[in-house]
Amino acid sequence: MKWLPTAEITDLRFKIKTLTGKHELTGKKGKIMYKYDAKSLKAEEFINDEEIRETLAYADANKDNVELIDAIIAKARERKGLNHREASVLLACQIPEKIEEVYALAQQIKKDFYGNRIVLFAPLYLSNYCVNGCVYCPYHLKNKHIARKKLTQEEIRREVIALQDMGHKRLALETGEDPVNNPIEYVLDSIKTIYSIKHKNGAIRRVNVNIAATTVENYRKLKEAGIGTYILFQETYHKESYERLHPTGPKHNYCYHTEAMDRAMEGGIDDVGIGVLFGLELYRYEFAGLLMHAEHLEAVFGVGPHTISVPRIRRADDIDPSIFDNGISDDIFEKIVACIRVAVPYTGMIISTRESKACRERVLRLGVSQISGGSRTSVGGYAEEEPEEENSAQFDVSDNRTLDQVVRWLMELGYIPSFCTACYREGRTGDRFMSLCKSGQIQNCCHPNALMTLKEYLEDYAAPGTKEIGEKLIQAEIGSIPKEKVQEIVRKNLVEIEKGQRDFRF
Question: Structural domain boundaries of the chain?
Fold first, then answer.
């Protein structure tokens, strides 16, 4: 059914029946024309186009409603989140002082839940073979001049050693979708290889996986392989646009893709990460859809997304981002990050090297808790830089600094670079992690863990100037640990790290 403005709905004697997380539009005879249900397992019901359009109309009608905006901000101050309609009003709001209130609140919520820690990771592209026809990605099947590569297990070993020598402890695996070249067995073998590599003091302690939507059985296999978070970007929640942007290949199936997180949860994966590619569709539409997806996961599984990523489309091989007319400015991007933070206070937020140093600095304070550093978006490229003529990159990197430069920059800004993976390895995942996070207790273990993993980095990998800054930061931060007993343990462990011991954690 085509969306009708509110006035037209009234004229046609339609009515909206609103329940908790459930909206139904019915006609005179009671026939359901559309249905929004956060608890539904059907993609077109928990991400419902009509509901999103109604939400955008509601936001437009109330973007200057100071009384309502104040009430929404007051609700957000309770740290229990906002629904997609409430958050959409804040995103639509153009009142400068109210926007500043949202930004200030986002900063405080980020501090309350995540402190001043920033978790670091790196992507590792295993293969760019892909059977899909996605028009915004250079890996699309029709691209015949991009270099097609697939890492062997020995090449993966060399890449991982190079990443370990940089100081990384956490990876995000990336592959194109190709059942022949990149079957699930290849991904599983690669995970096994990565976890097996111990080089000097290096070790990859957490492997997150970003691969195409798959079956419950395959998600179970990923769980058994010991992955951390399963990550899958929706790209766009607008079904018509989604199908147009993915004209061929298995990714064309909107519902199968959108329901992937449900299957991952069913397969036993506790932590999932969602996101959209901003620039493909109107950002307010995507924002509402993103929050509806988070609400759906919370409603069905009792736990929302472990992470939300906010990538923007970037130039790559045969992809010119200017052909997509929904690009967003840095100011709007900043506002989106702030509104996500107040709407979903518990979630980790990720920003990659797609974004520049300046842009990353703007959004770190408003909600981002994880960033990549020293990244390569080519297949491999860490052990040996890819020759220019062999361009296998998925997108151009805007932040080309080394990991050490990123670490130093974060510390100079007053953040603690964290290489911690303790929660994952201690079983604090899914609802257990969220319970810890929502109660504010996450900082009792994450803060000291961040300091100890930073100490490891300083001892093993840091440049002299970086180490000097880091040592001062650690000493200053120890005193902010609430419990004296924990402070005592951290001080003792820091001495042991200097002596060569590794992997202390709370």
Answer: 1-37, 112-400, 433-498
